Amino acid sequence: MAVRFDWKFAQGFVHPDELDKLQPFVTDVHQRLHAGEVPGNDFLGWIHLPSQTLARGVEDILAAADEIRQLADALVVIGIGGSYLGARAAFEWVKPEYYNQLPREVRGGPELYFAGNHLSAAGLKDLLRVLDGKRVVLNVISKSGTTTEPAVAFRVLRDWLVRQAGAAEAKRRIYVTTDRARGALKQLADAEGYRTFVIPDDVGGRYSVLTPVGLLPLAAVGVDIVALLSGAAAAEEALATPSLADNPAYRYAALRNILLRKGKTTEVLAYYEPALRMFAEWWKQLFGESEGKDQKGLYPSSMGFTTDLHSLGQYVQEGMRTLFETVVRVVRDDTGLTLPSDPSVDDGLEYLAGRSIAWINDQARLGTQLAHADGGVPNLLVEVEDRREQSLGELFYFFELACAASGLLLGVNPFDQPGVEAYKRNMFALLGKPGFEAMQAKLRERLGP
Ligand code: PA5
Fold this sequence. Notes:
Layout: E1 3-6, H1 16-35, H2 49-56, H3 59-71, E2 74-78, H4 85-94, H5 104-107, E3 111-115, H6 121-131, E4 136-142, H7 148-165, H8 167-172, E5 174-178, H9 184-192, E6 195-198, H10 212-220, H11 225-238, H12 248-261, E7 266-271, H13 277-291, E8 299-304, H14 313-318, E9 323-330, H15 357-374, E10 379-384, H16 389-410, H17 421-431, H18 437-447
Parallel strand pairs: 2-3, 2-4, 4-5, 5-6, 7-8, 7-9, 9-10
Antiparallel strand pairs: 1-10
Helix pairs in contact: 1-12, 1-16, 2-11, 3-10, 4-10, 4-13, 11-16, 12-16, 13-16, 17-18
């Protein structure tokens, strides 16, 4: 596998025996997961999704992606949560940081923007400004088809597109990814004749990056989705064993469980490449929504190092000892970037002249892992070979499986998210949505004048 797991910087905190003692529980979780005998078992489609999607083929997605490349200067992906984070994580992982600023012939695809992941008017207005004068294609993604944030953004952007390109052309430039049959978005897509892609019933939002939710926009900007799926399929095969000795995803899940029981209630996902920022956001949603329920669960947070070593690093080193850290490290450096020699300048850096920037970054990583472990923060390490699609596919699957196992070891249903409804009910009431009248009156009274 291109993904490796190492816990040597946590060994002062967990004895290997403790892992062995969890083996029967992990075996049980593995068997029940594969037999479909777990809570939330109507959402287990992700387990064999990579191999099944490869077997079925992705020609329809690749053809639509080609169309989008022809039609668009800019693609806007509208979605939130699981209908957003995976695509953005993979885009930022695989593509260069300043992708949109590169010339089209270097990029190879349309510019890519994301909308519908907030309700900020200023954010939406800024996007409209940057889209002005461009040929724009919209890919609106919502499994339920009723989520407010993407629905609001879609209405604004669709209205804008119709005014820019005319109703008939706008129709050609809207791609909808939604449920097979249900929801307002599906009805609208059918009524308007938009090109539609289906999110499988048995795959929940945060597990959906390898469905058309992620695959269509990623293919449109030239991400190799077959390699992404192949990597995930390789992990699906390699991680199909219950043995903690042979399954690094289960080892990671078991260690999380042990550390939580020892009072390490926050996990920091740390990364040393800015390209992993949105991957960390995807990871936070995966673990936060899967485990944070029944007043249980690790709090998933993230830090970008070395940047955050100059801010939150102080807390990690010396704050409350309730943290552990999982570092995701990209091993290979393809940049060829080294520190130039300049003996004429006395900046104290000449001893590093000729060293690669990646090597310097990795010494910072090693020094930090040692310091944080010495300071009482157990450190886990997930290494991934490179930033290619195949490796990322493996990593997606690694964390999906680890998350499912971890949630089940914790005794929660890792596939539901009942808690996200509370704010929605209040918001609907305050917005005056039909059916919420009584609740609106109560909430307005509580809020006062
Ligand atoms: O993981 C989940 O299920 C959620 O984060 C959803 O993806 C998110 O709420 C968006 O839902 P929908 O795709 O229905 O618009």
